[in-house]
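Quick one, T. Sequence first:
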Amino acid sequence: RCAEVVGGTSTAVRAIGSWALGLPGRLLGREGGALLIDAAVYATTDLPPVLLGRAADLPRALLQVRIDEASRKGGAAACAAAFAAGAAQASLDVLGGGFVKLAQVIAHSPALFPKGLVKACQKSLASAATPPASWEQLSEAVAIDLGVNSIWDVFQAFDPEPMASASIAQVHAAVLRSGERCVVKVVRPRVRERLAADLGGLVLLARFGDLVLGEDVVLQLVSASFESCASDLRCVILDECDLSLERRNMEAFRSWLSSSATLRRAGLARSVRVPRTFDLASASSVLTMERIDGAPLSELCRNTNKDVDAWQAPLVRALGVAALSVIEGEALFHADLHSGNMLIEGPTATAGMDSEQVVFIDFGCCGRIPDALRGALIMQASAFLAGKEPDANQFAQGFAYALQRMPGLGPGELDTEALAIDLKPLLIELKSKNPFRKGADLMKDPDLQLQLARLQLLLHRHGVQLPKEFTLLIKTGCFGALYFSLLDDRHRALLASNLALVGAAYASCNPHDARRMLSPATLVMLLRLLEEGDRGAFLVALGPWLRKGAKAAAIGVAAGVPLCLAAMQYLA
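Structure tokens:
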């Protein structure tokens, strides 16, 4: 053990020495000079217009911060804390744009950021209220974007007071000339310019981080350069300003909901819906859609007087739909599915629904997973089912599967045996964090950050890089951890069964993929689980497939629990 410690220490010393020797050359070299020039252009061209607008607003907002009486009685420390919270809220209100987006990601990612920072962002967002644009600005912007002389050429009624006002857009109730009730989402004036300036500064900061740390250190922390990660984030957020793209995402998801054979087989075809959009009343900065009379999930889960089954049962079904959208080829997945972007709509006779339905909204941020990565997800999830300990070889084979089909993510011939040996202890720890177990709460897990960092370092040692497509999936996973913490034990168990049923339906529609991706040991284990478990409605639903023989049954069930584990590993 002493020899290992000494060896590790000497390796660390050599690494630090190599980094220090290379630092001056990186900062004073060609890339350092290019960064200096770009930073000067940013400071003299892009930043001043944004700073001028905020220079007047921010001091005014800070002067309006008030300290409540209870904090005054608590002494200097309590007053300072109250002022800091108020100042953070006021700053978010004024700064908007990229700062609010960053706060949203942190607030919904308790497993990835320090607890104090998460709480501060949650409190600021809970009470923040982005000032809406004036009616004059708004009506003019809507008319120009729709190419009409006046908004009254399109709308019969339009409420000047917004129903909601967020960092990028605000939403108004309206009535079309046809008499249909609708809501109109409008991008706030000058928001794209502010976002571009904020995110441009973030990219420059990321480039500076690349220069200071060097490529070897950076790639041990993340799968690509900081600049690449920041640039991808910049593109994703700026895309949210293009409401024509959001409309296309909504229509694509609606089409998948109505055409997916897997959803029909799982009995989830009517569990989720997406509002209809109106083409003639929509453009790049205006999106008009049907009005939904539903309550946001974020409000329902805070209401302790509400019957939890009224929102937890439809949430379970909606999470099954969301998980399937990640792995079904023709689907895109919603990458910003926090509780404010789900509405719970009551039973409606016109829609043929006899229970609550979940409505997904705000499709500005969506993604698609390539075929090779979808296969890898299913293979790696199934590694947790072959016995008491995870099948590290199967998990490593998932990386090999993706690398063979996506060159550039790692070595052409991955040494899966060596990778499996190194992965096994970490996978055993991860399996113990099964979010479906009774009383589990990933939101309060202090070790998860460290384990994720260890996984990244381990993969780097073997030359494996996580692809950039995982960026949105990881963001989605931050919300998944929140949903597991919201569900009680009964509905968490129901979610596990529901995901298994979704997986069985997926396998029945894609039997070739199921046979190709799942090991025989996993198939045997799944059959044993089926025999020992509570079969009930699950067996009834699988009846048509089970009657086709044991082999078909094994294939059908085999993708079920892997999908459940895929949700555990990547959606939580």
